[in-house]
Amino acid sequence: MKIESVTLREIRMPLVAFFETSFGRTEERRILLLEARAEGRSGWSEVTCGETPFYSHETTDTAAHILLDFALPMVLGQNLQARDVPQKLRLIRGHAMARAAVENALWAIEAECAGQPLWQTLGGTRAEIPCGVSIGIKNRPADLLEAIARELAAGYQRIKIKIKPGWDVEILEQVRGRFPDIALMGDANSAYTLRDLAHLRRFDDFHLMMLEQPLWDDDIYFHAQLQREIQTPICLDESIHSARDARQAIEIGACRIINIKLGRVGGYGMAREIEALTRQAGVPVWCGGMLESGIGRAHNIAMSTLENFSLPGDVSASQRYWKEDIIEPAVTVTPRGTIIAPTMPGLGFGVKRELIQKLTVWEKTLTAKK
Predict the structure, then answer these.
(1) Considering the domain boundaries, does residue 345 fall inside one?
(2) The whole model's pTM is what?
(3) Annotated catalytic residue: which of 162, 164, 358, 370?
(4) 369 is catalytic
């Protein structure tokens, strides 16, 4: 299909409540949305990077630069299928979230052309996915306990809490004291080093599902050393950018679980490679979140239907983050803590163009030369 034009927009959406991790607090999102046009149809995607270079080197501003000045000119006017995009953009090193947005938008168009919801076009095997929630660092432990109680009442199957030095062991003790039997995990976002080994061993007392990315964001080797020293399963997030990374991590014993984020790995092509590799290796995966709007959330739902996404992901309801989401219907979670995969062809959800336009601070359209 010929890529006729692409529009890149920045929208700004205030969160319902602040979200804090070991590297900072977020109260408003600056989100890049990409709308590609081909075959008389539009395909939407979201650039999932943050505003700051703290989770990764990519930011809202760097992604806009890479897309407008490099990636989009490489695909405009070209006859491409979504699976061709990674090879077409191979000269761009890094900037996976920017590259992913191009590929993902084309998958949405292909699904619509096929008359299928995106998840079916991708080869998803389940029409209902299990959901968990990610709860950020709070001002007080009591606020965290109240948030956990609220999410459990909503039906979520797994609770993930953000941790960092000074907000970890004592907090986990309080959480386990009140909720002794829940599925619980801790996400460190690289807040520790091997010098903290004795401290990290204490986490074994809390019977966590997993400890996510405790060490350096670019490390695999030392996570293997840590995994040999603790009983809690390590889950790698920031360290895994490709199937090659995943294979290395599995072979040296750096983790027992992998978090796949669609943007971080560069799009559906690589996400499906990692899913297939981990499925063959017997290593479960789940879908992590990046405070996405409904468009990014719709793509996460589609990815989470793949067979090896067997653990509850961070794909939760729209209302947890936004007063009004930019898709319709908004993402909702069943009382049993699941999301039903959509049946609408393409992305699977309608896009609220008027609301998007209201939230837009700038936009730029690139059109193929005739």
Answers:
(1) no
(2) 0.95
(3) 162
(4) no
